[in-house]
Amino acid sequence: MTSATHSTLFPRVPDTADAVLDGLDPEQREVATALRGPVCVLAGAGTGKTRAITHRIAYGVRAGILQPSSVLAVTFTNRAAGEMRGRLRQLGAGGVQARTFHSAALRQLQYFWPKAVGGELPRLLERKVQLVAEAAARCGLRLDRNELRDVTGEIEWAKLTQTVPADYPAVVVKAQRDAPRDPAEVAKVYETYEELKRERTVIDFEDVLLLTVGILQDRHDIADHVRRQYQHFVVDEYQDVSPLQQRLLDLWLGDRDSLCVVGDAGQTIYSFAGATPDHLLNFRTRHPGATVVKLVRDYRSTPQVVHLANGLLAQATGRAAEHRLDLVSQRESGPEPAFVEYADEPAEAEGTARRIRDLIAAGVPAGEIAVLYRINAQSEVYEQALADAGVPYQLRGAERFFERAEVREAGVALRGAARAGGNDPLLDHAEGLPAEVRAVLSTKGWRSEPPAGSGAVRDRWESLAALVRLAEDFERAKPGATLSDLVAELDERAAAQHAPTVQGVTLASLHSAKGLEWDAVFLVGLTEGMMPITYAKTEEQIEEERRLLYVGVTRARFHLALSWSLSRSPGGRPGRRPTRFLNGLRPGSTAPGGRSTVADSGGAGVWSGAGGSGSDGGDGRPIAARRRTRGSARCRVCGRTLTDAGEMKLMRCDDCPSDMDEALYERLHAWRAARAREIGQPAYCVFTDRTLTAIAEAVPGTEGELAGISGVGARKLGRFGAAVLDICAGGDGYGADSEAADEM
Questions:
Q1: CB-based burial, 274-288: b 16+ in 10 Å, e otherwise
Q2: Host H or E run for residue 137
Q3: 422 has a pLDDT exceeding 80
Q4: Using an 8 Å Cβ cutoff, are 342 and 348 in contact?
Q5: 3-state secondary structure 273-328
Q6: Mean of the pLDDT values across residues 608-632?
Q7: Averaging pLDDT over each range in 449-458, 544-553, 683-692, which range is the top one?
Q8: CB 672 within 8 A of CB 686
Q9: What is the Cα–Cα distance from 301 to 526, expressed in whole angstroms?
Q10: What is the pLDDT of residues 302-311, one digit of tens each?
Q11: Res 456: pLDDT
């Protein structure tokens, strides 16, 4: 998913300091060798910024210019810090500290608290939502789930921008920020939340930064101690630094200037959390003699993807836009981005799933495909569509790989087998490292074929399968490696949070996709109101939404599809419009200046580049035709209009009474299990549980009736239709679809 995990993960450690510089382009080499004074690296998406700064640190260490223990590299996510530690280890600079701001501050706070304050550090509050809810209740306010989440986020923003409760209302007005409640009410909840923390002797993550800043400001002896320890600083994603984080960085530095910052104002997408690109844009003002290097050679994306990305930012306004970087692709030509319009959201999800299935059939690994959306609530319809299409997927945002229970259990089992060596009967018939790992993990639930369906069982299998693939890669890189060698590698990776890739199409929000990349990316739901999001009102907020779409586009290496739907539900009023950010960029649209880029394609209003679907809305028919023939989806029990994809499949509300033929469902379920075993695929690849339920409720008697059930497309109708109709008519279904199966 990242450039660190895309190819082999076990390169040779460079023999010399000069060898560390091998393979860097001229600008990356300039970064790597600029080891004195302040350095500002303006690095566009896909330009190898992590490569440049890790080689810079490694070169300095290997050349004897930097002491590993004196370097602190800071970034914003545990994943990014883990990747940085992994790369430094591969370059022979394993002693360097690479941490998030919070992790580095917490480590210092724990160490210095007894000396600076006395006693034990207060307990760290892992999740503040419950305490915020108590604070709201104490203020006489009732917040629903969404309001509670938003008020919690607002408190985090206030603390990161160093705004105290009393100043919050005025600061919100000045910042033209939309508060989730009346600013005075938010301020009161914020103040009460702080009181509750003091009463219970707990601190939150923002307090970690605030308290560290306070100690370093008040205790010059402690500040001097930290500055003697860390003499050289590297800050990644500098455009995302908050005022509080910048204050901490200033205190770490003191009056020194041994600082390298890396960032791209065009990728500032976290202002809601207090991030601002001002520190990056003002760096040369604060450090007039700074070395400034621009990285614009894009090694990630094809010229077609890069052209679209550049076009997005070319229409941007504001200060960040004035400092935009025009990327230059270094890759061979690829397909044009596909622009696809659908009649409704379920059709968009189904069409996306079909395209993904086709890519996988063409050889693109599922783990190299992502579906990205604006908000997490959009994921459900894509989860259902991918399951219906028999495509494995994973939701971005799960717990860290090495902290998963099954991974910890697997580590214990592998360590035990390594200690036992030839005395472990599990390994009697296993030849080679991968076979040994498979044998050990088979006791923890791993099988050669994935389990049917999704959920926890599938997640567990995917984790174990990732360890098996890692063992295979490890043996290819180091022939003759033993199980003990692999265990040592896993320990190092766990310490660095350098996880292997879990296979499956990634479903993720645009925000959580930052820093990742895939061979194929599907940007979905690109309509006005969603992109830009409805609550983006000011010009600055609108421009951040544009940058968010830019981040999504630049995640793609080769295949890129952008889609939208004209209505939310089948038969709904087709009143949606594609996002304004694509005006002048998608074929047939008009640029802000009034010029049409490509002639309108005609009645369907759908365009696609190479690899697109032409003028169909997801089922092979023009959208105009679909709009004429498709009525509203209403519950057949109570008559309510249905919008949930699962309910539309059943044609009833989830809580309305079911008239399912239980005996028929059991026969269908048994047939599905047997059929799945025959074709060697998970059961959901035949039909999902929802589709079986819909069939058992409808009891179709003809192909037309069966085809009318959501989840039974033309392909499944041809392959399994005869058997299903036979079962519905009282037969057993066996043999009825064998001829169709033989043709597949």
A1: bbbbbbbbebeeebe
A2: helix 129-138
A3: no
A4: yes
A5: HCCCCHHHHCHHHHCCCCEEEEECEECCCCHHHHHHHHHHHHCCCCHHHHCCCCCE
A6: 36
A7: 544-553
A8: yes
A9: 21
A10: 999 999 999 9
A11: 57
pLDDT at residue 276 is higher than 60? yes
Buried b (16+ CB within 10 A) or exposed e, 36-68: eebbbbbbbbbbbbbbbbbbbbbbbbbeeebeb
DSSP code for 415: H
> Rounded mean pLDDT of the chain?
82
CB 14 within 8 A of CB 20: yes
Confidence of residue 4 (pLDDT cuts 50, 70, 90): very low
What distance in Å separates the CA atoms of residue 55 and residue 321, rounded to the nearest whole number? 29
Of these ranges, 143-152, 168-177, 710-719, the one predicted with the greatest mean pLDDT is 168-177
104 SS3 class: helix
Q: What is the per-residue DSSP string for 174-191?
A: HTT---SS-HHHHHHHHH
Residue 570 pLDDT exceeds 70:
yes
Q: How far apart are CA 398 and CA 406, in angstroms?
A: 14
Looking at residue 390, what is its pLDDT?
84
CB count within 10 Å of CB 210 equals 19
Instruction: Return the biggest CA–CA distance within the chain.
Output: 85
Average pLDDT over residues 399-421: 79
| Residue keyed to tokens 């992790």 | 103
Please give the structure tokens belonging to residue 737.
């679809």
d(CA 21, CA 298): 19
> How many angstroms separate the first and last alpha carbons of the chain?
32
C-alpha gyration radius of the chain? 28
Write b or e for each residue in 573-585: b if 16 or more Cβ atoms lie within 10 A of its Cβ, otherwise e: ebebebbbbbbbb
CA 313, CA 296: separation in Å to the nearest integer? 14
Looking up tokens 């169909």, which residue turns up?
Answer: 616
Tokens representing 394 are: 């994973």
Give the length of the chain: 744
Rounded Cα distance between 731 and 471, Å, is 47
pLDDT bucket at 660, cuts 50 / 70 / 90: confident
Question: Nearest Cα to 31, choosing from 267, 295, 285, 286?
Answer: 295
Rounded distance between C-alpha atoms, residue 543 and residue 536, angstroms: 9
CA distances from 15 to 91, 314, 475 (A): 9, 44, 22
pLDDT tier at 401 (50, 70, 90 boundaries)?
low
This prediction's pTM: 0.67
Q: How far is CA 490 from CA 4, 66, 442, 493, in A?
A: 16, 28, 18, 5
Rounded to the nearest 10 degrees, how much is the dihedral formed by the CA atoms of 471, 476, 480, 483?
-10
Rounded average pLDDT over 376-403: 74
- Residue 453 has what pLDDT? 45
- Residues 463 and 460: their CA atoms lie apart, in Å, by 5
Whole-number Å distance between alpha carbons of 208 and 13: 36
Nearest Cα to Cα of residue 619 among 342, 325, 387, 406: 342
